[in-house]
């Protein structure tokens, strides 16, 4: 049975919002270039988080999460740009930006936790190795 992950659920819901926003941008605003960038980065976040779940190692998991972090940060950039050039209203911007900032914070926390875990593991294995070789 698959374990529930708030981060995966939120990133999926975010991707759905991004797809709908891009559909709106293309059909109503006739904006195609920036919206494609937003679609690429905004949907990559959830895909990377899902991929990380089955990482081959803690380092692989961390790598995927770091890339997801970079993608959500890029998405924030595109959202801010679309707002700055008046493709998004303040209400639209605030709603989607709050979601992206929440994902950003969750990914920062996840990557920090995993880095700490990896360091602790490495420190433990290094100390075990030195105990074995000190005789």
Provide the number of structural domains. Answer: 1
Q: Compute the average pLDDT.
A: 92
Low-confidence stretches: none
Strand content: under 5%
CATH superfamily, by name, is 23S rRNA-intervening sequence
What is the CATH topology assignment?
Answer: de novo design (two linked rop proteins)
Described by the principal axes of the CA atoms, the overall outline is elongated
How far apart the termini lie comes to 47 Å
Task: Give a brief outline of the structure.
The chain has 135 residues and is mainly alpha-helical.
Could you explain how this protein is built, in words?
The protein is mostly helical and 135 residues long. The protein has a single domain (6-121), classed as de novo design (two linked rop proteins), CATH 1.20.1440. It contains four helices and no strands. It has helices spanning 6-28, 33-53, 58-84, 90-133. Helix 1 (6-28) runs antiparallel to helix 4, helix 2 (33-53) packs antiparallel against helix 3 (58-84) and helix 3 packs antiparallel against helix 4 (90-133).
Q: What topology does this entry show?
A:
Elements: H1 6-28, H2 33-53, H3 58-84, H4 90-133
Helix pairs in contact: 1-2, 1-4, 2-3, 3-4
What are the defining features of this structure?
single chain; 135 residues; mainly alpha; de novo design (two linked rop proteins); 85% helix; 0% strand; elongated
């Amino acid at each position: 049975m698959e374990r529930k992950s708030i981060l995966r659920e939120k990133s999926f819901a975010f991707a759905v919002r991004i797809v709908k926003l891009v559909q709106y941008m293309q059909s109503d605003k006739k904006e195609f270039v920036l919206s494609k960038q937003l679609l690429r980065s905004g949907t990559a976040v959830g895909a990377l988080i899902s991929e990380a779940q089955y990482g081959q190692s803690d380092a692989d998991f961390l790598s995927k999460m770091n890339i997801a972090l970079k993608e959500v940060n890029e998405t924030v950039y595109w959202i801010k740009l679309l707002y700055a050039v008046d493709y998004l209203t303040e209400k639209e911007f605030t709603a989607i930006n709050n979601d992206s900032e929440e994902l950003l914070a969750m990914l920062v926390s996840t990557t920090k936790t995993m880095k700490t875990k990896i360091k602790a593991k490495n420190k433990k294995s290094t100390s075990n190795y030195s105990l074995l070789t000190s005789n």
